[in-house]
Known about the structure:
- By secondary structure, the protein is mainly α.
- It has a single domain, classed as NADH:ubiquinone/plastoquinone oxidoreductase, chain 3 (Methane Monooxygenase Hydroxylase, Chain G, domain 1, Up-down Bundle).
- Helices cover 68% and strands 3% of the residues.
- It contains 5 helices and 2 strands.
- The chain has helices at residues 7-30, 37-40, 59-76, 78-83, 85-113; strands spanning 43-44, 47-48.
- A two-stranded antiparallel sheet has the order 1-2.
- Strand 1 and strand 2 (47-48) form a beta hairpin.
- The longest helix is centred in the C-terminal third of the chain and has 29 residues, at 85-113.
Amino acid sequence: MVVDSYLPVLIFIVVGILLGALLFTLGSVLGPRNPTEAKLTPYECGFDAFEDARIKFDVRYYLIAILFILFDLEIAFLFPWAMANAQVGLLGFWTAMVFLAVLVVGFIYEWKKGALDWE
């Protein structure tokens, strides 16, 4: 393993950490500090908080969030395929169609199970 090839990466990491620490320190030292009662109150979506911050959320909220991330990432896998469509040929096209079919079957399954309903 050649250590010299990793030297630019190490320098980049060290400079990034030092620059981040420097900017954080300068902001803490030079930044204005004038807290008022309005600035220190809890703020939630444009209005005052009306309940305790430790209330329990319905599990459906997390389910919808996870499903969104799952389908969003699967769609993100289509961008490289679309860019390389000319190079992958017919086999790549049908592979992508199978991928999309699995994606659609999973979406229909979640829809039929009611996982996307918010009530």
